[in-house]
Amino acid sequence: MCWCRELNVDRLSDMLPVLVVHGGAGFIPKERVQLSCAGVQAAVRGGYSKLQGQGSAMDAVVEAVTLLENDHHYNAGLGSVLNAKGEVEMDAIVMDGRYLASGAVSAVRKVANPVQLARLVMDKTSHLCLTGEGASQFARSMGFPEVPGESLITEYARMRWKKNLAADANPVECQMGKMGTVGAVAVDAEGNIACATSTGGMLNKMEGRVGDTACIGCGGYADNRVGAVSPTGEGEAIMKVTLARLILFHMEQGRSAEAAADEALAYMKERVGGLGGVVVVDPQGEWSVRFSSLQMAWAAAQQQTLHYGLYTGEHFTQNIDDPY
Length: 324
Ligand SMILES: NC(=O)C[C@H](N)C(=O)O
Known about the structure:
The chain has about 325 residues and is α+β, with helices and mostly antiparallel strands. The protein has helices at about 1-15, 30-50, 55-70, 115-125, 130-140, 155-165, 170-175, 235-240, 245-250, 255-270, and strands at about 20-25, 90-95, 100-110, 130, 180-185, 195-200, 220-225, 225-235, 275-280, 285-290, 295-300, 305-310, 315-320.
């Protein structure tokens, strides 16, 4: 009994802390590949430095997602896709695996960092999700900075919106190519687990549409006893299979993070025709990146090593202190 416990503690200290981030499942146009990959690596470095200081898993995932929201190459915060009216409406969620505490915002506007607002919902209200104007009012009452809606719109987002206004356009199919949602999962040195996800949602979506990202168990879930998941992909499909919780359910049944992710992604594809991707961690610091789309920019940091990749099966490593 005793040796087993000691062995376990050694193992924990070896594998932790760990942080894994993604920049959305889909197809990234050639000219954006390099910057999309650089962005997830910068985000994982930023979040990992929190974990190496006094930061918690929650601090790390919020930091990583904030950095990605500020990077206009992703569909979150600055650079979000536009709704049918040509406006930005965003969803975000955080979850703290210690207490199953969670906070989310949906269809929120005029906020540069929805993930930080989601954290405030978790920390300062008794609710799990605030939407639309109510979320904005809460932000104002907390002194949370408001930005002009226009300032979150990039030329690229406007071009894609216009293209998909055509009568014969298929925005869902077009977006299956280019998802861009961002997310992160982490375990800190204490063994606490957290996740965060943020998105502008689906291209040319109806005004008021709420996607998977704002919904607990769909766009994210974290439980210290099992692990954490942050997904990306077609939100309606993710919601139909409650993808994040489904993966953790498979892990509870004894599957590894990788096997659980594969099984759930295959189920989503077969059952509702949805493609997507996930980053997953378990309490021991084992982690996995799996996707059914063509690409997903991802990066992870563990034991001073930076891991990253883009295509299925791609896995590069380097010392985290080495330059890009
Ligand atoms: N880009 C994405 O991953 C889309 C997101 N899951 C949504 O449907 O809102």
